[in-house]
Design goal:
single chain, 389 residues, alpha/beta, Rossmann fold, Arc Repressor Mutant, subunit A, Trna Endonuclease, Chain: A, domain 1, five-stranded parallel β-sheet
Length: 389
């Protein structure tokens, strides 16, 4: 079991959101070890049905206890959103602390729930980061199969592939179909494969819509659904004008490299440093690490990409709260040279208070012109994204 970077406050109720299989329940069992807790798991059909029909059962059970528990845990709260009103009441009136997990806030938002109006903090749990895995982190495995906690418990590649295939089907069955997010699952199933193939590329909604057989607005709603169910993140294009930024298309990154490969039917494709897909997977992983660690550390960094009309591109622009910038190129090479840094050199003069970095598998720290080239893990520390030693 790996130590997680999630840090709920011990005296405040909280939501813990995360995609299925990211380790929410496992984390809570460790977090509450030795404490008196009352636990409800709404993934169990009889529990979901019981509270869906009679939400007031929660209050009755709490009233019937001889001793008030330190915490009440409700797993997958989005399955019965009506419970939030009662949770709100017991936080206010009885000073009971709640830990509420969910794989999506979509149904909560639909029900006009306000996430308890700030009475519970919100945390997100992701697949394991290289920081959490420590010395057990293996780059090749992370690129091929991702870092869901369940994957780390499997020793052989064929079983890892089956695990990820099953995960993709579980998402369709339990997160999409069972929650009635869509009336017709077939176009969405096709969309998932195409979206996974487009991972990390500038989105062209019209082209994707044509391939799926739906209209562009439906494709946009599908991507929104992926975000709402925590299966991915939008990376917006950089522009100092928010109005102009919104005119351009974002990129989309799935939340885990292994799940992305499962959805795009690429689990059988070998990843070797010399091939194109290895480079795409490496960029995907490094960007995911930045997004995850930024959230865990609550650093309030903003991320974007830059692509010009002549197709010159900066993989990632990090904007710090003090309005300084880091321009980042991500390369899978194990030997960085001037060819890898020339785009950064070109754009660096256009950014005030900016530094340029090239993150790669090259084990050597070096300065190439104005660009600092670093091993990717060291680079995340240098950028203040990854915690130091």
């Amino acid at each position: 079991m790996f130590p997680r970077l999630i840090t709920p406050l011990p005296k405040r109720s909280f939501f813990l959101f995360g995609a299925r299989g990211t380790g929410k329940s496992t984390f809570l069992k460790m977090f509450f070890k030795g404490q008196v807790t009352l636990w409800f798991n709404l993934l169990e059909p009889h529990e979901e049905n019981r509270f869906a029909l009679h939400p007031e059962e929660l209050s009755r059970e709490l009233a019937g206890l001889d001793k008030k528990p330190e915490w009440v845990v409700i797993d997958e709260i989005q399955k019965v959103p009506k419970l939030l009103d009662l949770v709100h009441h017991h936080i206010e009136q009885d000073r009971i602390k709640f830990a509420l997990t969910g794989s999506s806030a979509r149904r909560l938002k639909r029900g006009s729930a306000n996430l308890l109006a700030g009475r519970a903090l919100v945390h997100t749990v992701f697949p394991l980061t290289h920081v959490e895995m420590g010395k057990k982190f293996d780059l090749d495995s992370a690129l091929m199969f991702g870092t869901l906690p369940g994957i780390t418990q499997i020793d052989n590649d064929p079983e890892k592939r089956e695990f990820l295939k099953s995960y993709a089907l579980t998402y369709l069955k339990e997160e999409i179909w069972a929650e009635h997010f869509l009336r017709n699952l077939d176009p969405f199933r096709k969309f998932l494969e195409i979206a996974a193939q487009c991972n990390g590329q500038v989105l062209n909604y019209a082209n994707i819509a044509r391939d799926v057989g739906v209209d562009p607005k439906t494709v946009q709603s599908y991507f929104q659904l992926l975000e709402d169910t925590l299966l991915g993140y939008m990376l917006e294009p950089f522009n100092r004008s928010i109005r102009k930024q919104q005119r351009n298309a974002p990129k989309f990154y799935f939340f885990d490299t292994g799940v992305k490969r499962a959805l795009s039917n690429q689990l059988g494709l070998a990843l070797k440093p010399s091939n194109y897909e290895f480079g795409r997977a490496f960029e995907h992983l490094v960007i995911l690490e930045m997004l995850r660690l930024n959230m865990y550390q609550q650093s309030d960094l903003r991320f974007s990409y830059l692509l010009t009309k002549d197709q010159a591109e900066i993989d990632l622009i990090v904007e710090y709260p003090n309005r300084s910038y880091a321009l980042i190129e991500i390369k899978s090479t194990d030997h960085v040279d001037e060819r890898d840094t020339r785009t950064l050199e070109r754009f660096l003069p256009d950014f005030k208070n900016a530094k340029a970095y090239c993150l790669s598998r090259d084990p050597h720290r070096k300065k190439i012109g104005s660009v600092l080239a670093l091993p990717w893990q060291d680079g995340l520390k240098e950028l203040g994204i990854s915690p130091g030693d």
